[in-house]
Amino acid sequence: TWYGSGSPQALINGDTNVVIKGKEGVTFTGMIAGASFTEHKANSTVTGSTNINISGNSEYEGIIVGGTIFNKWVTDFPETSVGAVNMQISGGTFNERIIGGDALLPDGQMKSYVGDVSMTISSGTFNANVMGGSFKGPNGGGNQVIKVGSVNMVISGGSMAAGKTLLGGSWLSGTGNASLGNNGNLAMGDINLTITDGSWQNILGGS
Question: What is this structure's pTM?
Answer without folding.
Answer: 0.91
